[in-house]
Write a structure and sequence with these properties.
One of its GO terms (molecular function) is kinase activity. Keywords: Amino-acid biosynthesis, ATP-binding, Kinase, Lysine biosynthesis, Metal-binding, Methionine biosynthesis, Multifunctional enzyme, NAD, NADP, Nucleotide-binding, Oxidoreductase, Sodium, Threonine biosynthesis, Transferase. By secondary structure, this protein is of the alpha/beta class. The protein contains 29 helices and 29 strands. The chain binds nicotinamide-adenine-dinucleotide, L-homoserine and sodium ion (NA).
Length: 823
Amino acid sequence: MIVLKFGGTSVGSVESIKQVINIIEQHRQEDTTFAVVLSAMSGVTNQLIEIGRMATNGNPDYLDLVRRIEDRHFNVIKALIPVKEQSKVVANIRGVINELEDLLRGVSLIRELTPRTLDLIMSFGERLSTAIVTECIKSRGIPAVFCDARQLIKTDTQFGQAEVNYTLTNQLIQDFFARNTSLQTGGIPLITGFIGSTEKNETTTLGRGGSDYTASIIGAALNAERIDIWTDVDGMMTADPRKVPNAFNIPSITYAEAMELSHFGAKVIYPPSLQPAFARNIPIQVLNTFNPTHTGTMVSRTAERRQYTITGISSIDDIALVNVQGSGMIGVAGVSAKLFGVLAANRISVILISQASSEHSICFAIDPRAAQQVKDILDTEFSVEMSHGHIDNISIERDLSIIATVGEGMKKSSGIAGKLFSVLGKNGVNIVAVAQGSSEINISVVINKNNLSKALNAIHNVFFQSEARILNLYLVGTGLIGSTLLRQICAQYEFLRSEKLLRVCLVGVSNTKKMLLDPKGVSLDDWRERLLTEGVTTSLPAFVEQIKYYNLPNSVFIDCTSDKDIVQFYELLLDANISVVTPNKVANSGSFAEYRRLQKTALNRGVKFLYETNVGAGLPIINTLQGLMTSGDRFLKIEAILSGTLSYIFNNFRSGTSFAAIVREAKEKGYTEPDPREDLSGMDVARKILILAREAGFPLEPDDVTIKNLLPEACTAAPTIPAFFQELENNNDYFESLLADAGSRNEKLRYVATLENEKVTIELRSVGPEHPFYMLSGSDNIVSFTTERYKDRPLVVKGPGAGAEVTASGVFADVVSIGSYLA
Ligand SMILES: NC(=O)c1ccc[n+]([C@@H]2O[C@H](COP(=O)([O-])OP(=O)(O)OC[C@H]3O[C@@H](n4cnc5c(N)ncnc54)[C@H](O)[C@@H]3O)[C@@H](O)[C@H]2O)c1
Ligand SMILES: N[C@@H](CCO)C(=O)O
Ligand code: NA
């Protein structure tokens, strides 16, 4: 025997009732015996409560609502029962509605709605829906038997939430099923959910989860093989899909897990109402009436082998936390008894409790609507302790949420709390309180409400491993480096997803004219088109505000500009737990205090600030230096060629060619700064050596860097880029003379930056064939680190140090390393 229960949406419309009938017909063909339990049509129970309230207030409009309910039921009859059989059914249903109207007339006269009367009013929902579906089935030639559960389920007189008398109920159900002749001859019982009656035959209702409860009671009494709960979703999911778009179906779950998850709002089923079935070890299959081939979720004593350590995540979105603390609580027995005793006496439900072993404080979570009441009660109850200073003021914190991670797989498995706390930490979600029961199948954390969605998604992402972790990107600057970066990421998208388990999502993109933000992601191959057509006028403050507003997990901000104003936002972003990656050197080459502040902020927030491409583009220079520093090496000297542009120029400038033309070539090849004067003036190199010095532990300021100017005065003074190029042309002889001078000694021109004895110098030198900097080509950079450990022979990094592809790939590597860190 199987019990099938159909919820309100399953019997909510003509179309859905057709589905229900199909499912019932299929079961008939399968030759198993079964009983059916039905809810009221969706929304009807609430309407009946409203009708009751209106009648009590003497509001005659209740009759309109009754008509609406009546019409809805009549429509089903018209649609699903052959015309010649309709009048009999309509008359029958009208009879039931008349009974309801008589009752309501009484209520509106007496102007009083007792819980007992309300239960009777509510019972009409199930009585109507079940009567009609029974008739629909009968009209198809299938024997069906309408069963009013008030004759089967006997309860006490707690109207609204009646307690079942199981001894009596089980007997009645068993007798009914054994003796009813129609059932004996293959009739299908259709039973009203939600309702029962007292020994005096007064109608009662079973409270929350009502029809599930009915199915469970019937199933338990008949020792059913299974109970199928037909609803409107594909079973239980790993999280609420409205909050976590990546949530997916849980194929199998234990009773205990289902209890834990549902307590926290996964409302597909209400497990306490399934207790009678659980007690008899009857499995419960949750299925979707509207997608009947989906296998849904099986709830049973033991779950199948699992792929994941946790089973699901759920939350209570709004709670308040009450904190009771004081020195008078330490080692004093009975404080918590008194505390929770008084809460119980006032019918305050406590959602979560946490007490540290110091016994100095107890905090507990409650419905925020009860917060003020709780404070008043406790202030009164503990007034003596408070006046003696044994207990401090009772404080209430609001706007909090609870997240519960649930799963039998967490039992005796270490590292789960660590993983949970770490992912929250990396995303800047502060944990206000924690609780874990010794059953070890639920770890609950209390967090600020505004972080709820971010936290749920981040936790889901990290625990359901086979799914790629999302990395949310915001890019500012779509020039050479920015656009090359997006092209590279686009080309590697699938690789990142399958091999690195990273799913890159470009959430925001901006150039100087337009910006576009879309939390669903901007496709990496048509961002340019969308930015053009959907973008709004760029405003950096608005862009940053929006990033903070989205509050998405695993977020990275990428600055691919050379803008000076943008860096003021870095601290704000890091502070909001958003990692920053940039090839822009401005932030790290300003004041030392600013440099330190950014490092500290990132450290404190547990996010990353990465800028490998600040020096030598994609060459591993900063990472190498940081590695040496971390392992305790000390820097004695750094000598380097740090300008790809100048390297290219001196590697290609020949006597008789135009110096300006070579500079133009460097610009066209993408080596120069957006403004090439930065390269030629030595400014770009100054920034880089300053950054290296700082990374090597020397707290230098920009003024500490001495640049021996390479350019004639007229070039330096040129007010615009075209004027600058003109001056380069005008001064060609000067550059020729530098070249000739070096050539006369068989040497080459090199623009060398040196850090030694805490001093930085930058100068144009000429070096001979014996010098390690002699053999360079193209845009090569070379950095030579002399340290305590690399003293006799320096550690050298050499290779192309400018250009779109190598720079973008360096930025890309930084972004991916953040992805791996966050994941
Ligand atoms: N080109 C290289 O080889 C190389 C190597 C290492 C580092 N870098 C650094 O990379 C950065 C980008 O260089 P690039 O070669 O791509 O320059 P680029 O001029 O091609 O691109 C920069 C883009 O940023 C935009 N921009 C500037 N301010 C902006 C703002 N406030 N909001 C939005 N967009 C803004 C500009 O309009 C431009 O499109 C620079 O900081 C540069 O120093 C470049
Ligand atoms: N303009 C820079 C790019 C690398 O930072 C150079 O020429 O080295
Ligand atoms: Na680098």
